Amino acid sequence: MVTSTFTRARLTRIGVPAAVFLGLTLLRTHDIARTFWMFGDQIRYWESALLPLSQQPLGGIEAHVGVSTLGPTYYWLVWLSRVTLGPFFDNLPHAGAIAQVVLHSAIDALLLLALWTKTRSVWLALAATLFISTAPYDLALSATLWNPSLASAAVKGATALVLIGWPERSLVGVGLVTSVAWVSLHFHVPVVFCVASIFVSMIAAPLLGRDYRAVSQRAAVMAGVVAVLQLPSLVHRLSIGPGNEVGGAAVTGSLGQVLSGAAPLRVAESAAGLARAVNRIQVDPWQAEWIGWVVLACAVIVLVRHRDDLPLLAVTVLPLGVSVVGYALWVGTFDVYYYLSQMTAVVLTVLLAATAVARHHARYVAIAALALAVAILPARVRQAGTIHKMPEYDTLVDGSRQIANRGVPVRAIRADFLPPGGNSEFLFTVLGGTLDPAAAWVASIAADGLVSYERVSPQ
Asked: Which of 18, 100, 237, 442 is the most buried (most CB within 10 A)?
């Protein structure tokens, strides 16, 4: 009987995260080959992935505000997805999105297991995982090639490792958490506030306990891991020469304006930006203008209830506070996707506060939260289907394949049904076609997939 019970518990421990992984993977990849979101960034990343490994960038990704990420890991991961999954999908770019989905869903399963271990409640772990991973905006972004989504996933992974207690087990655990957290900065710079909080989680306890030897050891490991991960970026900077790199001019300029008094410290605006992001990412498709006050109240409750659990506070309340203070020093706009990585902390803070208030009925609160997450799932999935989708993608794929297979040299390809910003020729080149400026034909793909050719005068 003991063996049977042990086996059943062990199977459940494995089966539940596996089911969540499979379910999220299927949910995220549904219709991905028909509606893949293919615009500027996705084309840029996949163009790079089509090149050999020796030609992959060593520098970070340049953002629209003039700030580059801290390293090239995202480019390398997209290249790896093209090499492994690309051949099964004619090297089309949605193969990279599928690989990103698999990685993201695996991290979600790890977070579920970590929360289950930390809280000893599978109900709370399932509720938190569903609320975080099926938020419409996050659900849509996780199924495309875009670095902010994978940065959010990396923060989830580092958070899960902290909750499991890896940094407390050994210096190897400290190094692993550091590497996962720091790599997220190779993906997207705005995760810096979450990364800083995760770093604090690894040194706060020994520092407060005056175990300075442990503090110095952990700090040395963290610094060493960061130095190794920054080697590609260092090589890139040395190769292009001083003054040619894309750096953090926007960030330093913003700090300079605030610290010099030329721009005000925007604490209220920063807090409002976080509240708007929670509304847009977590509450959508509904609206709750008061959600910011709820998160604030929950943060206070968690601070009081879990004041002795520094690692837990460092991955729940601390990232929210650091983000508000950090963005108060920012003079630019507060775009919603800047806050994707904070949503894990938001959801955990709210759920932990709810179970803390009803401490003697925490199990029932967790079950109710899970029931709510399941009840709103269909509406969230429908909303995700309206965000960052390109329903013209499959028509463009079919038309491009017809043109490539026919083998008639073409000068250009037109597809007037594409939305602004769409590229009518990229998929043709991915499928092996070559545009010839001297060709006598221009191909056109109609909205119904019909391909026609028009003879043009020679240039």
From this structure: 100
